[in-house]
Amino acid sequence: MIEDGHKLTDLVQARRERMPRLVDPRDLMLGAEAVSHRDRTRRDLQFLCELGAAMSGVGDATTFIRRDLERIGRRFGLPGMRASVGPTLLLLRYGDDDVAVLDLMTSDGGELSMDKVAAVYELARAAERGDIDADEGLHRLHAILATKKTSNRPLQALGIALISGGVSLLLGTSIEGLATCLLLGALVGLIKVGSEDWPRLWPFVPVVAGSVATALAFLLIGGGTKISAVDVLVPSLAVFLPGAAMTVGMIELSSGDIVAGGSRLAFAAIRLLLLLFGIVIAEQLIGWETSASSSLNPSDFPAQLIGVTLFTIGVCLNAGAERDKFGWLFVVVIAAWGSQQLVGEYAGPYLAAIAGAAAIVVVSGAIESRYTVNPLVLSYTPAFWLLVPGSLGLLGIEKLARSDVDSALGELMVMLLTMIAISLGVILGLFLQNSPRMHDAVE
């Protein structure tokens, strides 16, 4: 889920080497104090650019990144600074000094590890409080991004297997279904972590994972295993389901960030289509041996609690997180799952999705503000997998490919309404905790 991004580090290094050499001819006509002020302003903007690039690599909403950068700019003495953030573009303008910075940023090389995410956001909060200046901030940011941590790929693959098993228990699978999900999840994990050395081939990864998992599921069904293919494919492919990307995209659209939200939803749709393509290939080669309809029944409480535990352990193993991250993430996941279950008993699935998303944000925010661990974005991103809007989209698109148009449109509408519910839940959670991320910087 969350891997080290080498391209992001290389981009930051190149920008660090490039920016100090910029010389404005107007500096020759200014006094030493004015030159010092201009240099300090440029250094502040350089730090904000590199920090924004790192936060973008995490997958945070551009709306929140913009507000964070503007608050830090005000703390640095740049009250007129404005930020415009896109998925791969960052524009900072400081009007009082007629300084504008246009910067490109990317996260194509992969995602930051869980520990690096925590360090980046701890740095951002320190800058927002005024505890550090731009020079110290740049030094610490470069040190964070340059830190190399040996990844344990077998443990990452095991983490994906546990995520698959945990989701299957939450959905109410049988013992045979659980064993199948663990097997398929481990196989998908090996494919995913084995492809990290070839990031340019990422479009093939969900296709191959979807094809291999589907083919093996069909073979097991043909061999007499009493499972439904759909019931084991959704948990097994959970790490490829872009539920968080869909929800963040909806948040950006609701905040008026149309370009960022639209492009993020397009990315999520492409990820689902690639998974579908892999599933269809396997279906054509082997044949669909069972009904596409789900045979799941709600699990009892102990089984669901075990599922939540397996899921959280899997997330931490896959992310290579330190042991102290597990307890905090487990609290967030339990809060999301418990709120969703409780409200769902009385108010239906959509209000349950709102409650689950709001609980994620409120609990994550309380942990971050009180204990300064596990920033909000780090806590709620994995927990979104439990709300599974992406799996609904996968089922809907699969039915559409099988010409079951009426059923497919119904599934896709459920997915859309679920995304809207989760987005509203996130906004409600931010409002309830009076998060600064709900407010634009004021002069």
Describe the structure in your own words:
The chain folds into two domains: 6-146, no CATH class; 153-438, no CATH class. Helices cover 70% and strands 4% of the residues. The chain is built from 17 helices and three strands. A hairpin with a 4-residue loop joins β2 and β3.
Summary of the model, kept short:
This protein is mainly α. It folds into 2 domains: 6-146, no CATH class; 153-438, no CATH class. The protein contains 17 helices and 3 strands.
List the helices and strands and how they pair.
Blueprint: H1 6-18, H2 32-58, H3 62-75, E1 81-85, E2 89-94, E3 99-104, H4 114-129, H5 134-146, H6 153-171, H7 175-194, H8 204-222, H9 229-236, H10 243-254, H11 258-286, H12 301-319, H13 324-347, H14 349-371, H15 376-387, H16 389-401, H17 405-432
Helix pairs in contact: 1-2, 2-3, 2-4, 2-5, 3-4, 4-5, 6-7, 6-9, 6-12, 7-8, 7-9, 8-9, 8-11, 10-11, 10-17, 11-16, 12-13, 13-14, 13-15, 14-15, 14-17, 16-17
- Which residue ranges are poorly predicted, with pLDDT under 50 across at least 5 consecutive positions? 1-12, 18-23, 26-30
Mean pLDDT: 77
Order of helices and strands: HHHEEEHHHHHHHHHHHHHH
Main beta sheet: strand number and arrangement?
Answer: 3 strands, antiparallel
β-strand number: 3
Order of strands, main sheet, comes to 1-2-3
Number of domains: 2
Radius of gyration: 23 Å
